Every structure is written in C-alpha cells, then in structure tokens.
Amino acid sequence: MASKISRVGVALELPCFSKISKRVPCRSSSVRVKSVVSVGDQKKTFTLEKSQEAFNTAKNLMPGGVNSPVRAFISVGGQPILIDSVKGSHMWDIDGNEYIDYVGSWGPAIIGHADDEVLAALTETMKKGTSFGAPCLLENTLAEMVISAVPSIEMVRFVNSGTEACMGVLRLARAFTGREMIIKFEGCYHGHADAFLVKAGSGVATLGLPDSPGVPKAATSKTLTAPFNDVAAVEDIFETNKGEIAAIILEPAVGNSGFITPKPDFLEAICRISKENGALLIFDEVMTGFRLSYGGAQEYFGITPDLTTLGKIIGGGLPVGAYGGRREIMEMVAPAGPMYQAGTLSGNPLAMTAGIHTLKRLQLPGTYEYLNKITGELVEGIINAGKKTGHAICGGYISGMFGFFFTEGPVYNFDDAKKSDADKFARFYRGMLEEGVYFAPSQFEAGFTSLAHSSEDVQQTIAAAEKVLRKI
Ligand SMILES: Cc1ncc(COP(=O)(O)O)c(C=O)c1O
C-alpha cells in the first residue's frame, strides 16, 4: 500500500518522467499546412486552417462543434484548435502547431501526457479485454491506494466521471442524514447534475434557481448557495434552515472560478459548523485530489471531511470518478445498503490500470515539491511580467494547480473573480496560443502543471507572456 506522502520537505528532486519525443506533423487533410510553430524554435507563420475546416464540419455534427462547451473557445473568441497528439507537457494540433500545455486534459495528466509506463500497462491490460462487467483485482488495488492516501476515505465506490461521483455523493448524504437541503458555494462546480446547476450570485440562503433550461425548479429548490470564504453566510443559512441541511459541498480550493484558495480558518469553520448542525461535510476533490498533495486538499489543509469525491487523476486520463468516506456512511451504498447507484463500465480494467500507474508515479519522493517549485516559477514569472508591463494582475498556486486574474485582487470568491478583465484575458489567451502556449480557454478555469513540465517550458512561457503582455 502507498505510504502517505507529506507536503513538508525540501527535496526538489524531479521524479523520473518521460522525455518528450519528437513528433511529426499530422498527415491527413485537404488543406496544406502553411507552417509549424515549434516552441523554442524560431517562430514561423501560425495557421489554424485545418482546425478551422474541421471545426466547421464539427459544428454540423455536434452542438457547437464540441462535446464539452468550454472547448469551443466562446469566452476567448477566435478559432478552437483540434488536437492530434500529446506527449509529456506538450501537444500538437492538426495543423502541426506545437504547444506547451497547461490544461493537462483538465487535470488528469499530472505525470505528463501519454506516459510510456502508463501506455505499456494499458497495452498489457488491454490484451485481457477492455471491460469485464464483473469484479476484477485491479479495482481492489486502486481502492487500497485511494483509501491509504486520502484521509477521509475508508471505503470507496468507483464511477465513470466527476459528475457521477457528485451525483452519487449527494444521494448518499441525503440518504444518511434523512435531510434534503444542501449548501454549495457560488462559483464552485460539481458536475452537470441538476441539483448543482444553481445560479451563482443569488442572495444568501435564497432558494436556488436553475442555471440552465431543462432543470426543473424542484431539482434545485433544495440547493442553497453562499459566497466562497464567507463563514457568516453559511451560519445564516444554518440558522434559517435548522435541522434541514444534509450537507455542505465545496471545492476546498476552487478551480472552477479560476483558482481561489480558502482563507486561513475557512475550512476549519465550515467543518465545525457542519458538525454542530449534524450535516455532512463533502470535499469535492475531483480537481484537487492527488494534485495539491498525495492525500489531496484535505491532507494539504489538514481538514478531514465526512465524504470526498474524486475523478481526473485517479483515472490517469481514462474516464473515472469515485466517492468515498467513513465506513458507516459508505455502507449505505447498494448492495451493502439501500442507497442505489450503479454503472455498466464502473471499475473497468483500463481506467483502473491507468489510475494505479499514475498514482504509483506520484508516490515517488519529491513529486509535490517539484510541482510546487515549477508552478511557483511559472505563476511568479507571469505576474512579474504583467506588473512589469503595466497590467493589474494577481494570482496564486498550490502544488500543480494555479490561476491568475487581470485585476489587482485579492480574489476570495466568484464575485471577486468576475472583476478580472475578461476582454484582456481573451487577448492574452489568443496571443499566447500563437506563441505556442495552451492555457484553459476561459478566465474561470484553473491551470495545471505536471511532472513533465520543465524549467525550460516555464521560462519559454514567461518569455512569451511578457511579449504578449506588452502588446495587449
Ligand atoms: C470540482 C469538480 N467536480 C466535478 C467535476 C465534474 O467532473 P466530470 O467533468 O468528470 O464530470 C469537475 C470537472 O471539471 C470538477 O472540477
């Protein structure tokens, strides 16, 4: 079993990671590749002709041309890029442009994309089949690894996405407490299930209104919202809804409003208030799990919730999610208990394999020190470049997770985040893309580094940022 890795330490040794292999530009398309932007090489003309053509086709095939909205570049404008391949910290689009990638498939790629060991393990597993629909040993192995790493988890249930994990944990919290109301925080995202799609910014303790057509009012009427980092707002909600709150769910460090950290004592206060009121505390660690530290945000901040959701990293790039917590709560889940939840592909051997090998790599000494060092270099470099070029800018990072805003700050919640100059971010974004740097195409998404990101990647990114920041 994995030993728990402390965040304390000075070792800045880089655990071994895959070398970035040379890639050939993609082959098929009727449109000629004009040029290739190669990071580090002299810059040539940047073109997205093939992406443009393919995206135009995609728009007739899939809503908005994509299978997840943010990928359409709506908030940054311009042309979305279609990816051909990934390796290490880099990716290549179908026009042959190369990028340093700070999205990491939205989090899973913490040891770098297409890691050789993970690919080899997947190939071996695949020889035995891709899905069994029956228990397998790999599920035990990953479950043991998760349980030994994450302080709150004594039992775990694997599902196929973060959304599914959050849906499951919500039903479980309601089943265990016999209560229906939940508190979520403005700007936190817990997947696209109805109950979580509640308009942010409504008044404290106001009953939630659906954030999307198609969500029945009844589905969100039990969802109450508070601003992140606002203890008094949470106390007020409990005061006016005595004995009715099943759970508080939150991202312990927010990644879905940009990157926002909890104020000192915020998590402790939320933990205390939920206990005093007989409500469960749920950390949604789909993003922060195995990222802020091996034991997630709960280990990093030293606060143990009742229940936890995971996703992304524990599937090593394959579809996965999980929820877990105290044994007495988890034993309510079917078939051990009466709370029903199931899944055709849950615990499938490929996702389990990629997860196991990703976590094994993360256990090597120096992992989180390296992520913290490289991310610090990146964020401090970009903020310094911003200040040097006369922009209001602030930002932060923990381990391999970061964000920055075009505002003086500080940013404590979603309303603060919305003060960021979105037009400037869009210009910055498109400029960086042309310089061969791929950030998340939205101001309201965190960035991610990986063990494959080198100091050279970071220095090139900072140089590109300074160049772009001078122009915008
Ligand atoms: C904190 C958090 N919870 C839940 C989800 C939903 O996960 P998925 O996209 O795998 O459904 C996400 C997705 O980014 C997330 O960041």
CATH topology of the largest domain: Aspartate Aminotransferase, domain 2
Uncertain stretches: 1-38, 200-208
Distance separating the two termini:
51 Å
Query: What is the rounded Rg?
Result: 22 Å
Summed over residues and divided by their number, the pLDDT gives a mean of 90
- How would you sum up the major sheet? 7 strands, mixed
Helix- and strand-based class? alpha/beta
Percent range for helical residues?
A: 25-40%
Q: Tell me which CATH architecture of the largest domain applies here.
A: 3-Layer(aba) Sandwich
- Heterogens: pyridoxal-5'-phosphate
Largest beta sheet: strand ordering? 4-10-9-8-7-5-6
**Outline:** globular
- Contiguous helical run count: 14
Number of strand elements: 14
Task: Give the helices and strands as they follow along the chain.
Answer: HEEEHHEHEHEHEHEHEEHHHEEHHEEH
Notes on the structure:
The structure is a single chain. The protein has 14 helices and 14 strands. The protein has 472 residues and is α/β, with parallel strands linked by helices. It has 2 domains: 221 residues, Aspartate Aminotransferase, domain 1; 246 residues, Type I PLP-dependent aspartate aminotransferase-like (Major domain) (Aspartate Aminotransferase, domain 2). Helix 11 runs parallel beside helix 14. It starts with 48 loop residues before the first helix and ends with a helix. The chain binds pyridoxal-5'-phosphate. The site of pyridoxal-5'-phosphate (PLP) has 16 residues, from helix 4.
